[in-house]
Every structure is written in structure tokens, then in C-alpha cells.
Amino acid sequence: MERQSRVMSEKDEYQFQHQGAVELLVFNFLLILTILTIWLFKNHRFRFLHETGGAMVYGLIMGLILRYATAPTDIESGTVYDCVKLTFSPSTLLVNITDQVYEYKYKREISQHNINPHQGNAILEKMTFDPEIFFNVLLPPIIFHAGYSLKKRHFFQNLGSILTYAFLGTAISCIVIGLIMYGFVKAMIHAGQLKNGDFHFTDCLFFGSLMSATDPVTVLAIFHELHVDPDLYTLLFGESVLNDAVAIVLTYSISIYSPKENPNAFDAAAFFQSVGNFLGIFAGSFAMGSAYAIITALLTKFTKLCEFPMLETGLFFLLSWSAFLSAEAAGLTGIVAVLFCGVTQAHYTYNNLSSDSKIRTKQLFEFMNFLAENVIFCYMGLALFTFQNHIFNALFILGAFLAIFVARACNIYPLSFLLNLGRKQKIPWNFQHMMMFSGLRGAIAFALAIRNTESQPKQMMFTTTLLLVFFTVWVFGGGTTPMLTWLQIRVGVDLDENLKEDPSSQHQEANNLDKNMTKAESARLFRMWYSFDHKYLKPILTHSGPPLTTTLPEWCGPISRLLTSPQAYGEQPKEDDVECIVNQDELAINYQEQASSPCSPPARLGLDQKASPQTPGKENIYEGDLGLGGYELKLEQTLGQSQLN
Amino acid sequence: MEPGDAARPGSGRATGTPPPRLLLLPLLPLLLGWGLRVAAAASASSSGAAAEDSSAMEELATEKEAEESHRQDSVSLLTFILLLTLTILTIWLFKHRRVRFLHETGLAMIYGLIVGVILRYGTPATSGRDKSLSCTQEDRAFSTLLVNVSGKFFEYTLKGEISPGKINSVEQNDMLRKVTFDPEVFFNILLPPIIFHAGYSLKKRHFFRNLGSILAYAFLGTAVSCFIIGNLMYGVVKLMKIMGQLSDKFYYTDCLFFGAIISATDPVTVLAIFNELHADVDLYALLFGESVLNDAVAIVLSSSIVAYQPAGLNTHAFDAAAFFKSVGIFLGIFSGSFTMGAVTGVVTALVTKFTKLHCFPLLETALFFLMSWSTFLLAEACGFTGVVAVLFCGITQAHYTYNNLSVESRSRTKQLFEVLHFLAENFIFSYMGLALFTFQKHVFSPIFIIGAFVAIFLGRAAHIYPLSFFLNLGRRHKIGWNFQHMMMFSGLRGAMAFALAIRDTASYARQMMFTTTLLIVFFTVWIIGGGTTPMLSWLNIRVGVDPDQDPPPNNDSFQVLQGDGPDSARGNRTKQESAWIFRLWYSFDHNYLKPILTHSGPPLTTTLPAWCGLLARCLTSPQVYDNQEPLREEDSDFILTEGDLTLTYGDSTVTANGSSSSHTASTSLEGSRRTKSNSEEVLERDLGMGDQKVSSRGTRLVFPLEDNA
């Protein structure tokens, strides 16, 4: 008897594992299908459906099949056991079943009305991931990749605008959506669709903040393919990346906003606490992420790890992952930390890596990003049918659609107007329209919404978010190409061609003007940062830049000598130097202004001028480096090697 | 090996380098310490929170606990990651200084041990918060449990079964429990990339040339070794019973099980050194092939031994029916997994052949990865062994799909799996170090451990020498005595034995086995792994043989070689070595499989009989016809593969570095650079640190065929 029960439980466990395998297999299968379809599409140059859209379609189909084709198995595990002796819910539970002790782990709390559907279908239940998987496994590579592939030069040129859009814009959009949704909720209460007191203003704000995370992968992919104006690309990409970070932290601080007495009235103390939380978490995550990146940069600079690209790649990967884990362990937001870690890694560490590792890391994260993104979108399609607690509320959904458009408009147009006051190179109307149009919602909004689906309002939000993501990805994503032509936005602008024109005489003046404008665009603060970065951080963290001994004051001579790598003094035309020149180009703002500044030795200046006909080529390398184009990468590699040899 | 020892070689040797490096190394332990402190604080606070029993705080406490648990998970993962980081840095130092006595896996174990000690003795034991209930009435365990606690419903998931005696020890230390992974993690996450990489990087030509011997070693050898170890251990167990040292049951099947798990050799250390020193390619292929297939055999063998359940009352007596059932299970699982792996490999090859996916390397890589992973999942879902399926999938992918991939995807897939393999392997080894202290159910039994040590050496000897003798009867290209000694010597145990042992640690016998396995792994990796270089020089095994310096494998050189005296003679011998069944397979592969699955080979229209002309035209890719014009990319591949089919190229490297081998060994040991002889210099340069050189070497070594392309 004992033996039999043991075998039985073993079988149960066996079944359990098999289920896990089957479930993963379904996803694998879906992804493979997606890849093949996408290949077909790309091959025939259909641009109306991006791979993420395709993943969602397949997810939907699979969800439909699972929902209606599998028999609802009657699992007994749904039986509720009453336990009188237990007064609270411990994290582990030891259950004694016929002298065999089993260990159970606390999973979650279930609200009462969710119990019944819970018993329905074992497979459906299996297909539902733990929402934390998104945050701990799938999102980090996506976000890191985004940070790692921010195009540096254009990004820093438009830094001011991007930060404005990301911070102010997200806050505005959050509040506007929250207010509009509150209006709709009031209307729903009026119409008797909702009980009073279920849906508070904080819930509306919560929805607003999670809805503010835009994720225009589809649009960006098309932009990249069509080589749309780099400024527009950078604005959109930078905004969407930072946006995510802001939205995540904002959501978190709204969810912990808990006033003391009346839980939903305004309470100044709690409000300021929330704001403090927001700032604290954001700053903490930022610091954590950049600290790890700086450690990596220093390690790669001072060890000759570049002799072993595999070790280097491993180190890079592990330290970037540690940034995430440390932030989580310290109670900060891992994703935000990972984002800034990525940005810093791209800015500093990337220059220290061997050329092999550069390609490896890029490809590794590109690959992980691709997989994770498609898994998430696939899961979204699946979730529409397999998630069991959907609450479809037409009014709420309608309101949400309206709200996100209004909020996006309130985000883009006024801010662009304000920015145009300061910017010399204005953001034209068609860019503004395009940015307004590309307010797609994606993985982050979904992950934030699925994180908490306990209460009824949260479930309603989740359903709405899902529908919004579907709609925006399919309709807006599909409409990007027509929209581009309609708005007469330049396509086919090769980033590199743009630069190649530079030396050619007829564009000289226009381009100079252009440059001056962009130069002026960045405010004094940013210029200060540039020069600081160029003079101190770059030399400390990488092999490039002027030697520290020249930039630091006299009295810290020993430290500067210690920190400057021998290469910085050394022969100019070395590999690092190429990068250095490129970096300088990026810093051209600073450079051109103070061409005769003491910090740059005349030799370098001469070299720069001498190299100016070649600069496009080097620029080319550089752009290809950070770009996503596989082929460019390859070319770049061989080029770099031939230069080395 | 003490912690201090591990740290000293690194820092001590670094004196010549700029000081910042020294400043940086301690930074990581500092961070680690910080992480641990956070963890300690977290566990302390959570226990404080749990102590509160007021009903208002319950919900909050649970939520907080979940958060704490997440935080602790992060910390424990962080611990491992920092360990790996540290390992990487130290390994870099070692490689930089050419210290070869300690491989990265050995180092990972040392760091794991240190952290294990810290965790064991440095963190306070938190009081157990688990409660044993007896208020439920079900008669079997469910995977999920819904519990109604004062009006609130909580969901619990089954974590595992605990033997009643262990309830107390389970509760001991939260942090220790956190760093103890579910053993299935090894099988489902960490081992597949390692095994796949092994399969994917099997040196094709040399592997196929020695296929017969490798298969003999892997199958027969593992079986022999399993039985011998099992019988010896049974003797030891009997002895222990007489001496009264055995406190629980230990059956003959348990002994056999131990034999099976410990038969999985894993000479990563030795292979890494061979690779670095370019030891004889045949020896390398024999060892590597044996160890790879060995793992597969050992896994299936151990699972079929577990499945051996005689009917009737006496559950541990010999029962012919049950025995044959076990054999049947073994064959079934093995062939099933093999088929599964081969089929998905073939499907991938077909997909990559007939779509033009190679225009998009990212998509191609992703497809490749997903298909290979699907193999694993599919096999697991069908009840076969995923790891074995993945191994054969890797071999098939390397043999067929690899030829269809775009150049970029080739390097991408290789690098991807290389990184995964590297991380997973070091993770497992550092976990091993950790497990010695953090695993809570160790059973140390000196007699058993000594017996096991004796048994594995005897088992290895009984495996290598007789089999080599028999193989030498058939082989013309004999396996020399020094090769046999070296193979005997490189019977290291590693990740696979550990993973198999940790999978089931419920009973007393299994716990004893686990402890013993752990110690054997430690011993073999450190001592035997460290002794590889001296052993190589002592046995006079050629090092510095560059496999790429084999004649450029095309038909011209083949002709030349034929008339080349000793080389051609040897070539003929190797040809003879493979029995006609292998030759049959080669020609089948060359005539039908290659053209169907890849762009290379002769067009099917010429090889297939006339009556299936339509099918042949359908399956032959257009490129094949173009291949008639020589020297396209696929074409060179084709020539190369033909090269490995003809089996005729002996290593024609007349520049055998036998004389300098001892040189190298000694120099490497002393860590000083002597650049005396010319060949030495060549070797040095090859092993040297020019990053371009090493990287290109790495890719070349793994896939010699591609490099010639």
C-alpha cells in the first residue's frame, strides 16, 4: 500500500513535469511557426505585419484551440481544504498524507470568486505562467538590449528632448489617462455597471501609468528597415526606452500609495512619500545599473581579458545580470537598473571589448531580445483565451481607447511645442504626427498589467490592456508604412550617407548650419556633461580619450597615472584610437567649439583633420556597430580586422 | 586545497602587473559580503514579521514574505553569478600566466567550497516556520492545494516529498535552503546546453574515423564499468554490514545504480588541456567521443536500473523477466531518444535547406535554437531522455544543418552554445563546491568512499585495457599503450555523475552515494585534472599536433598521399579500421542523406534510381547542380565532407612535436617562458595571448572543416 501510493505520487510528479515540457513545447512550436512566417513576409517584403504581430496571431489561434478543443479535466486539486488550526498562511506548508510528508510552497492568494473557474481546465492553467517570469526572465534581456543598442550619437544629440518626452510626457500621459478613466468609471457607476467603491482614483492612475509605457517595436523595426530620418528614430526609440523605466517605477510607486485614514482620499504625506519613493527607486536603480557597468568597464580595461573573448563575453553577461539581481535584492527595480546598465555598458565597456566580444555580446543580446519579445507577444495572444478571469467591459475599453489617444496627444503636441521653443532644429509637424501615431503599447504594459490580477478592477484593466495592445500593434503597426508616405517623412536616409555628404562641398553650408543647430539644441547642462565625460570618465573607464594626466589637475598626478591605460599615451593609430576618433566625432559639439582648447593635444587635432576624408568610413563602422543590421555588422568586422592586421 | 591557496596563485603572480588589478579583485568579495548581509537581514526581518500573529497583519506578512522570498532568490542567484565572475577573472589570470594545473571547473569548485563554508557557518540558522498539519483528509498528494485560512484562500504548489526523519533538518537554515536548487534544474536547464554543445562540436572527421572504437568504449565499456563497480561496491557494502557501519538498507540494485552514475566520465579538464596543447587528434577524438556518448549511456542505464522492479515478494532478488524488461527499457529509451534527436535535426536541416532563411541570420539562429530545444522538450514529453536526444540532435545538426546555415549563423550558433556551455558548466561545478557544505543530508562513510575510489579505478582499468586489446585486434592503426594509459588516467567524473546522483537523494543509500560521488568528482578534477600535463609528458604523447595542418583535404592531396610511404600505409589502415557496416553508412550518407538534407553532395538525380526521378528532382536543391562548377561555398564543404568520408588522411604532420612535449609541460608548470626550440616557439605563439589568434584558433579547432572552406 505504501509503495503503491509512493508510485502514485511519483507518477503525479512525472505527469507534472511532462506538462511543463508540453507547455514549453507549445511555445517553441509557436515561435518556430512565427519565425517561418516572418521569413516569408520579409522575403516578400510585406511590411504590414511585424513578427510580434505574427506571434500574437499564432498565440491567439493556439489559445483558441486550447480553449475549445481540450476537454476540461476534472482535477481534484481545486478542492478547498479548510484548516481551522491555521491562522495565517505560511510560506511553506508541510502536509502529512498517510505518513508521507509533502512540502508545499506558497504560491498566491486567490480571491473567492476566482476559485471556481480555477478548477476548470488543467491545460489552460498550465499554460498560464507565473507573471513574475515576465519581470525576472523575459523583460530584462529586452530592456538591456534596448539600452545596449541606443544609437549613441543621435541619442545624445537629442538627449534633452528625449528626457522631456520620457519623464514629463509619461507623467502627463499617466495623469490624463487616469483622469479620463476616472470619468468613465464614474459614468459606469452611474450606469450601474460597476459597484461604487470598487474602482478608486488610485486604480485609475495605476491604469494610466501602466498604459503610459509605449513600446513601438513594430514602428521602429519598419523605421530601421526603411532608414527613416535618424532624428525621428532616435526620438521615438529613446522615448520608448526611457518611458518604460519611468512607467515601471511610476506604477510601483502608485501601487504603494496608501494614505493612512481614508484609503482613497488625497493625503499630502502619502503623496509625497510616493513621490519620494519614485525618486528614490529611480535614482537607486540608476546608480546600481551604472555602478555595475562601471565595474565591468574597469575590469575589462585593466585586465587583458580581451585575449579570451569567451571569458569576456561571459563576464559581460554575468555582470549585467548581476545588476538586475542586485537591484532586485536591494528592493529596487531590476529592469530600470538593467536599462541603465545597458546604456552605460554601450557607452564605456563596449569600447574596451575585443572586436570578437563586441560582436558576440551584440549578437547574444539581440538573440535573447528576439526570443523574449516573441515569447511575450505570443503569450499575449494566448492569454486572451487561456486567461480565465477576463472581464470585458465595453464602456471601460472604449474609454481606454479614447484616453490613450487624448493622452498621447497631450504628451506629444504641447511638449513638442515647448521643446521647439528651445530647439533650433525644430521638431516638424509631420514628426509630431508620426510620434503621436506611434504610441503603440507592448510588452511592458502587458507585463505590468498581468502582474496583479487579483481584484476585479485589475482584471478589467488587464483585459483592456490586452485589447489595446492587440489593436495598436496590428492596426497602428500595420499602418506605419502608409502613414510614413502620407506624412511625407523622408525614408531611405542612410545614416551614413547623411554623413558622407558632410565633406562634399554643396551641402557643406547646410550641414554646418545643421550641426550648429543640433549643437545649440543641447543645453549648457548637457554640454557640461559631455566635456566631463570626455575628459574624465572616458579616460578612466576606457582606453580612449586624452590621457588623464593632461586633464586632471597636477596634484592628483599619481592617481591619474595609475588610471590611465598605457594605450592612451601610446601610438595614435591603434585600434582604440579609431574608436577614440569616433568618440570624438560624437563629442564634436564640444570639440569644434574649443578646437584650440588645451585638453586636446595638437597632434590629435591634426590627425582628425587629416582623417576627415576617411571619417565617413569610420563613422560607418561605428554606426554599423551599434546598429541592428546583421550584414552591416559582418562587414564591419572584417573591416575592423583588416585594419588591425 | 584551502581558500588561501586558491587566492594566492592569482594575487601572488600578479605582482608584475599594474596595481589596479589587485585593487579590483577584492571588490567582488566585498560585494558578495554585502549581498549576504542583505540576505541575513532579510531573513531576520522576515522571521520577525512572521512572529507577529495579530490577524490584521497576516495578509501583509504573507505578501511581505513572498517579497522576501523573491529577494532571497535574487541574492542566492547573485551569489552564484558573483562566483562565476570571480572564476572567470581568476581563470583569466591563470590562462594569462599559463598555469595549467587548475582548470576553470576546478576553480569554480574551490570558490563554491569557500562560499559554502561561509554560508554554512557564517549565516545564522533561522528558526523554522513550517507547521506540520494533520487536518486534511486526502489520500494522495496533489500538485496544487487550495487552503482556506479564515476566509481567505491560498494556493500552494507541491514542492517535493520529505522523508519523515528529515522534517527538522529541513527547517534549519533558510539561506542554505535557498541556495539548494531543485535537482531537476540540472537536467532541464543546465545539462542540455552542455550536452548539445558537446554533440555540436564533435570533431567530425576524426570522430567518424574512430567511430567503431568510440562506440565500443561508450557502450560496452560503460556496461563493463557499471557492472564491475556495482559488484565491487556490493562487496564493500557487505563488508560494511559485517562491520555494522550500515544503518539502513543497501541493495544490489543500489550498487548497480551507483555503478551506472559513476560510469559517466567527463574529462573536461583533460580535454581542455589537450585542446590547448594540441595533443594527438586521435586520442582526443577517442576520449571526447567516449565521454560524450558515455554520458548518454550512463543516463539511460541508470534510469533503466531504477526501473528494474522484480515482481513478487522479494523486491531485490534477481528476476529474469524484470531484468529483460530493464534491458528493453534501456534499448527503447536509447533508440527512442536517438530517433527523436536525429529526426528534429533532420527537420531543421530540411527547413533551412528549403527556405531562404539564411538571408536573416537572426531568424536562422533563433530557429536553430528553438528546434534544438524542442528536441529536448519533445523527448521529455514522450517519456524519453531529453539529454540523450539533445546529444544526437547536436550531432545531426553539426553534420547536416550546419552546412545549410549562412556563414554568420554558423558563428552565431557556435558562439551562442559556447557561451551557454561555458556558463552552465561552471555553474554546475561551483554548485558542486557549494553542495559539499550546504547540502544537508550528507552521509560520510569512509569505507564506502575508499571502496568507491578503488572501484572506479578498477572499473576504468577493466574497461579500457581489455577493450583496447580487442579493438587492437581489429584495428590496424593500433591504440598505443601510452594512449591506453592516458585514457585510463583521464577517467574524471564531472557534471553528469553529479546531476545523476543529486536527482534522487531520498533514501539513505542514495545520500551516501551522493556524498561519495561529490568527493570523487572533487578528487578526480583536482588531482587527476592537475596531473594531466605531467602525465602527458611522462607517457610521451605527442603534443603540438595541429589538426589543421593535416593535408588540405581535397582529392589531389589524397592522391599524393597515397604514394607517400608510411602515411599512406597508415591511411589504409585507418580505412580498414572501420568495418564495412560503417563504410556502407558512409556511402549511404554521402549518396542520399547529404544531397537530401543539405546543398552539397552529388545531385540526387544521379544517385537515385531512375524511377524516382521526380522525387529526386524535387528534393535536390538547385545549388547542387551549380555545384558542378567547382569551388562555390557549398562545394568546398562538399569536398571537405568527402574528405572525411574517404577516411584516408592520416595525420601527415611529420613535424610531430614529441621531443618538445616534455619541454612544454615543464615550462607550463613552472609558468616561465622558455623559447628555445623553434617548435616550442610555434607552440607558444599558438597558445599565446594575441587575441585575434586565440579567437580564430578557437573557431578553427571546433570545426576544422569550416576553416578550410
Summarize the topology:
The complex is a heterodimer of chains A (645) and B (709).
Chain A: H1 2-43, H2 51-69, E1 80-82, E2 92-97, E3 100-110, H3 115-118, H4 122-126, H5 132-148, H6 152-157, H7 159-190, H8 201-211, H9 217-226, H10 230-255, H11 268-302, H12 309-329, H13 334-352, H14 355-386, H15 394-422, H16 429-437, H17 443-451, H18 456-478, H19 480-486, H20 495-500, H21 508-521, H22 524-541, H23 548-551, H24 557-563, H25 566-569, H26 575-586, H27 588-593, H28 602-610, H29 615-626, H30 630-644
Antiparallel strand pairs in A: 2-3
Chain B: H1 3-13, H2 20-24, H3 27-51, H4 55-97, H5 104-122, E1 131-133, E2 144-149, E3 152-162, H6 167-170, H7 174-178, H8 184-200, H9 204-209, H10 211-243, H11 252-262, H12 268-277, H13 281-306, H14 320-354, H15 361-381, H16 386-404, H17 407-438, H18 446-474, H19 481-489, H20 495-503, H21 508-530, H22 532-538, H23 555-562, H24 566-577, H25 580-597, H26 604-607, H27 613-619, H28 622-626, H29 633-646, H30 658-670, H31 678-687, H32 691-702, H33 704-708
Antiparallel strand pairs in B: 2-3
Helix pairs in contact in B: 3-4, 4-5, 4-17, 5-17, 8-16, 8-17, 8-20, 10-11, 10-13, 10-18, 11-13, 13-14, 14-15, 14-16, 15-16, 15-17, 17-21, 18-19, 18-21, 20-21, 22-30
